[in-house]
Amino acid sequence: MEQLTERLSHIKMFVLDMDGTIYLGEHLFPFTKRFLSQVMRSGREYCFFTNNSSKNREAYLKKLSHMGIEISEDKMLLSNGVILEWLKENRPGESCYVVGTPSLLADFQNAGIPLDEENPDLVILGFDTTLTYEKLSKACAFIRSGRPVFGVNPDLNCPVENGFIPDCGSIAALVKASTGVSCEFFGKPSPHTLQYMLRKTGCHPEELAVVGDRLYTDIAVADGSQVTSILVMSGETTPELLTQSAIQPDLVVRDLDELANLLS
């Protein structure tokens, strides 16, 4: 515990997951605001990062505002931003066929990345809650013809109030079953995302803590680095999953309420 307390003393920024960590669906956890206040009282900062590529920054800022949490735009980080930055740097000018929601398509357009439904250079798979069979068929046809495919986030499921719904990783699994082609994922736990977090927060690795409820995304993104990983048991991970996982967090807490107590 002394070693953990020493490690937490170096943390300057908490990067918080959202679904399953600060809220579930449309319901803010009752302890979230207390935790955020405790972070600020302790002289630290926080920001949010979500792998959910079905919405854009504006939608999340609005959702948080409705929940009574007001933050600046630079404190709301998304997997969308990770892949968009990478595409602009590594695939400049190339067009994309995007399997995604109108919000994700708008992010691509606002970033100046051309969209093409007829002859794209690349195929992008997002968490598409407006998914149709036509979109899947077109994406698979493009991939079979040799277009590279990238996934915005690897999550298999998205937590909601009554359970889970299929996320981007499940859509990518369907596409792989049809085409035999796997895609490179962005978002957590991609190394692209860890570098994105460090770049956007301006922190050194030992000054950053990633907090979330998923082992294979939130915790895995910090694996093998000096970034501290903190697992909350308020979302997807069960005690059984934690025991069986090869990926282990630096710290496990019941929820953000327990983490707030450690900071006080």
From TrEMBL:
Source species of the chain: Neglectibacter timonensis
Signal sequence residues: none
A molecular function (GO) term: hydrolase activity
Source taxon at top rank: Bacteria
PANTHER family: 4-NITROPHENYLPHOSPHATASE-RELATED, HALOACID DEHALOGENASE-LIKE HYDROLASE DOMAIN-CONTAINING PROTEIN 2
Protein name: HAD-IIA family hydrolase
Keywords noted in UniProt: Hydrolase
Record's keyword annotation contains Hydrolase: yes
SUPFAM superfamilies listed in its UniProt record: HAD-like (SSF56784)
Record bears the keyword Hydrolase: yes
Record InterPro entries: HAD-like_sf, HAD-SF_hydro_IIA, HAD_sf
